[in-house]
Every structure is written in structure tokens, then in C-alpha cells.
Design a protein that fits this description.
The chain is about 45% helix and about 15% strand. The protein has about 140 residues and is of the alpha+beta class. Strands 1-2-3-4 form a 4-stranded antiparallel beta sheet, with helices on one face. Bound molecules: zinc ion (ZN).
Length: about 140
């Protein structure tokens, strides 16, 4: 089951608004009009955004999912290569990706369930973020 369909399964009355895009009533607040945007990325990640201002973690808690459920594949499969000649957009995407990984791992750390692999991945994320910094400033 894809990450987006897990979310869609738990959000009653979600309406598809385009390819890989849905809108649903937000489960985390008393939502009169649909204000939860659900998107599925090409890489299988699912992005949630509540226009009512809910945090993604609150939306996830309301439907009994965790950040890990927003990923289709295990985290280690989400490791885009860093190479020279990045465009600003690619750098932004890389940063956003690593930030997602870090927030996911922070969640696991808070729950006291960090594994050794997670710690390795976290160290990798830190290294990649600082490499991205160097690339940004190197322009
Ligand atoms: Zn909401």
C-alpha cells in the first residue's frame, strides 16, 4: 500500500483534485470545509498540509500514523546522490529531503526507538546538509 493510500484510507471523503493530489477534511481539527492537502510525490513520499494550520504530527496522530508511514520505502532507499552542479532547486529539494529525514528521526529519538542504523542515517543527514551549505555558499 502506498504512503498516500494509507493516509487516504483514514481520511473519510477525500477527493482527488489532480494526479497524486487529494483534499480531505482535516482529522486534527474541526474541519468544516476540506483543508487537508494530501500529495504523493514521484518517489512515493506523501506530503500533508493542513490549511487550517495543524502540524503534520497532529494530523498523523489523529489518524494513528507516524512520519514513517509517509514514506513508501524504508528511509535508506531515499538517498539521492550529492554531486557537483546542483541547481538551486535541487539543493532546496535536497535540504527539504534531509530535513524530513531529520524530523522523522527526531520523532523516533523522542519515542526512544532510535536504532544504530537510524543514528548512522542521522549522521549522514548532518553531513549532507553541511555539504549542501558549502555548495550554496560556493556559488
Ligand atoms: Zn487541520
Amino acid at each position: 500500500m502506498s504512503a498516500a493510500s494509507k493516509v487516504l484510507d483514514r481520511c473519510a471523503g477525500a477527493k482527488q483534485t489532480g494526479a497524486g493530489r487529494w483534499i480531505a477534511r482535516c482529522p486534527a481539527h474541526d474541519d468544516k470545509s476540506p483543508s487537508l492537502s494530501i500529495r504523493e510525490n514521484d518517489d512515493g513520499r506523501c506530503l500533508l498540509h493542513c490549511f487550517g494550520g495543524c502540524e503534520t504530527s497532529d494530523v498523523l496522530a489523529a489518524i494513528g500514523l507516524s512520519f514513517a508511514d509517509l514514506f513508501d520505502k524504508p528511509l535508506e532507499h531515499h538517498l539521492p546522490p550529492i554531486r557537483g552542479g546542483f541547481s538551486a532547486r535541487e539543493l532546496l529539494e535536497l535540504n527539504a529531503h534531509e530535513a524530513t529525514v531529520v524530523s522523522l528521526l527526531a520523532e523516533k529519538a523522542a519515542a526512544g526507538s532510535l536504532t544504530e542504523d537510524d543514528i548512522k542515517r542521522l549522521t549522514q543527514a548532518a553531513a549532507r546538509l553541511s555539504k549542501a551549505q558549502v555548495l550554496v555558499h560556493g556559488r
